[in-house]
TrEMBL record, chains A, B:
Domain of life according to the entry: Bacteria
Matching InterPro entries: Ntn_hydrolases_N, Proteasome_sua/b, UCP009120_prtse
Assigned GO CC terms: proteasome core complex
Biological source species: Aurantimonas aggregata
Database matches in Pfam families: Proteasome
Signal peptide per UniProt: none
GO process terms (BP): proteolysis involved in protein catabolic process
Name listed for the protein in its UniProt record: Peptidase
Length: 243, 243
């Protein structure tokens, strides 16, 4: 499993992903699920991925044109005219990867599926976030649905639904998403530290502040421990039940 | 889907279940998923059920011996010598129901599966809670795992994990479980009001306080609305993230 969130606020976009990958509980590794492309002043793109690691890595490699010698690379993902076209390219690429894996080759019980969150901005457009399905189609975040989650989304969803406000700063969003990730990590072994975080300030057209939280990160520890106490206080503040 | 919780504290046991049943989002009904048997002074049993409604209803009917005329009924579930034997009887009954449905009769895409939480106390024993699987086997709650959830358990789990304390009163447990249910109901359409709640005071050997919360219940409304504000305050109280 995996847990990734892409969230949109007035100030910009924030992306967060865990980094645990597993082939069974006895075979786990750390792999970042966040990929950033940028042409400063022109475009910024961030892609979060969940699902079969072979599928998501192949998709990213194709988008990156890693088949070419480094000098010859001119990734097509950096030449699309709009975020919509960029999402379409990601969708077509994942569909292509899945289609050439599924029918031939070794069969396996594992699914070849992969899902993506793509966010960013291209000059002349607005910051946008898309959720891209393994079938290649996609949906866009809007005012009624300002964030997307992929992977193990259930444990960490209630806190986002109840606390989100479009006027939040990116720093407040970082705190909110860390609480959501901590709730998920405590409940599902297949979601694990370190956590990657990427800010994007609207209209900056370049990668913003970036941070990786590992288990020794003092702020992560503060949130993880502090939230239990804060929840208990909140719970105590609710009126008692009377028969 | 469904959401049911059976929770054990020093003071006794508490059971809570939603009452939405559905065959698709366009076909929903209200059905209680809680069944209580008691012989005051001798035993108290509460059974919560999730899964295929035909399977769970047939299981309960068999346990209740509804095939007999009312005057001839002497439900075997009320004659077991221990909670362990009672859980075994429930497990054998659900396995039997599933086995006579599955191979013959009409085939369907729907699963015939059903899961149960059984809690209660029999004179001479302690209050106990079991989780019974559709395969007929079962596990018991203990100090490390003092509660069981069946159905849509993920949304409402983090708050129980972080807030539970064996010294809580049954009233505090009611508040906790209502928060957990409200988080689930807001996130999953297939879990719905009204909510049934049953208390059991340890060693009382009779059914305790009971209540049904519907959408007009003033306390449920207070919790549902108050928890969002309480969570926001708790969130604001955490130290801010700084770059």
């Amino acid at each position: 499993m995996t847990y990734c969130v892409g969230l949109s606020v007035d100030q910009g976009l924030i992306f967060m992903s865990d980094s645990r990958t597993n082939a069974g509980v006895d075979n786990i590794s750390v792999v970042s699920k966040m990929k950033v492309w940028e042409v400063p002043g022109e475009r910024f793109l961030c892609l979060l991925s969940a699902g079969n690691l072979a599928t998501t890595q192949a998709t990213i490699s194709l988008l990156d044109e890693r088949g070419l010698a480094p000098a010859e690379r001119n990734p097509s993902i950096l030449t699309q005219p709009s975020m919509f076209q960029t999402a379409k390219l990601v969708g077509e690429t994942v569909k292509e990867v899945i289609s050439y894996t599924t029918p031939a080759g070794q069969s396996a019980d594992a699914m070849f599926s992969g899902s993506f969150i793509l966010g960013g901005q291209i000059k002349g457009g607005k910051p946008r976030i898309f959720l891209i399905y393994p079938q290649g189609n996609f949906i866009e975040a809007g005012a009624d649905n300002p964030f997307f989650q992929i992977g193990e989304h259930k444990y960490g969803r209630p806190i986002i639904i109840r606390t989100y406000d479009p006027k939040m700063s990116l720093e407040e969003c970082a705190k909110l998403l860390l609480v959501s990730f901590d709730s998920t990590i405590r409940s599902n072994l297949s979601v694990g530290l370190p956590i990657d975080m990427q800010f994007y300030e609207a209209d900056s057209l370049k990668a913003g502040y970036k941070r990786r939280f590992d288990k020794n990160d003092p702020y992560y520890q503060t949130i993880s421990e502090g939230w239990s106490d804060a929840l208990k206080s909140a719970f105590d503040a609710l009126p008692p039940f009377e028969r």
